[in-house]
């Protein structure tokens, strides 16, 4: 990403991102991706790669992909919202967990479309960061207030924190064909009856607690003008509610993939 990135980037955040990767893989059925890729593809791009764990794991599945990082993986720093220059087109471009990081999603999707080979695929996995709840246990809580303030702060920064529900429309409007969408629930805490969702929810609770102070402090102090001690007092109540396990909130997670038509210019 670029210098406008508004979240932590330290060692504890690296550990949290690796846990979040595991959670997202579990959430969609223990898969790294859902697009129907052929095993012989060679060029794969992971946008906003974070710690690089997805790209490194993908290298094991696609040994033909261009060459301790496996020799067929390389990392580049660039601004995903600028026009991409100097890149050869890719067989597969993957974008995940970019919510609250971008200002112009249609342009971003267009950049991806323009850099996919004809008949190549792109896949987007992302959230609506506004917590949902089916039984009223979220309403009026400190967790709800924190979530609402986070969404509002992202809006103040012109960062889209709920791209997930809009992904399919953006992908179709850009020109992708054979577009498919799948929606998944990511509980916040191990409250679900289903063992799989309970496991995903536990991962989500841990990564949320691990990152809570870091990204809240940076946004609330840097954007909303809160004092650090105000943030700490507020988050004490949020943590208490999260650990109590009485709130049955969840995030909606969306996977959308599509194929660039044959005959389209790269």
TrEMBL record:
Alphabetically, the GO molecular function entries are: methyltransferase activity
Question: InterPro entries per the record?
Answer: SAM-dependent_MTases_sf
Record Pfam families? Methyltransf_23
Q: Into which family does the record put it? A: Belongs to the methyltransferase superfamily. LaeA methyltransferase family.
- Write down what this protein is called: Secondary metabolism regulator LAE1
- Source organism (scientific name): Colletotrichum gloeosporioides (Anthracnose fungus)
């Amino acid at each position: 990403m670029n210098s406008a990135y508004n979240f932590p980037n330290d060692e504890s955040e690296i550990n949290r991102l690796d846990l979040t990767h595991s959670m997202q893989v579990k959430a969609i059925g223990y898969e790294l991706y859902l697009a129907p890729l052929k095993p012989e593809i060679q060029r794969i791009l992971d946008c906003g790669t974070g710690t690089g764990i997805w790209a490194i794991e993908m290298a094991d599945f696609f040994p033909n992909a261009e060459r301790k990082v496996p020799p067929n993986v390389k990392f580049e720093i660039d601004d995903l919202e600028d026009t991409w220059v100097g890149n050869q087109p890719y067989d597969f471009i993957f974008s995940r967990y970019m919510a609250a990081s971008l200002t112009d999603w249609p342009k971003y999707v267009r950049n991806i479309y323009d850099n996919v080979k004809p008949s190549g695929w792109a896949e987007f996995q992302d959230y609506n960061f506004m917590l949902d709840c089916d039984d009223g246990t979220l309403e009026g809580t400190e967790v709800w207030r924190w979530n609402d303030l986070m969404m509002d702060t992202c809006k103040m920064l012109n960062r889209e924190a709920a791209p997930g529900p809009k992904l399919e429309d953006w992908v179709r409007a850009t020109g992708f064909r054979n577009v498919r969408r799948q929606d998944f629930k990511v509980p916040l805490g191990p409250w679900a009856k289903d063992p799989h969702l309970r496991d995903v929810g536990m991962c989500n609770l841990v990564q949320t607690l691990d990152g809570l102070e870091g990204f809240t402090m940076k946004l609330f102090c840097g954007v909303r003008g809160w004092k650090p001690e105000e943030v700490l007092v507020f988050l004490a109540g949020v943590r208490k509610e999260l650990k109590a396990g009485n709130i049955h909130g969840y995030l909606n997670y969306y996977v959308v993939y599509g194929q660039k038509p044959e005959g389209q210019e790269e």
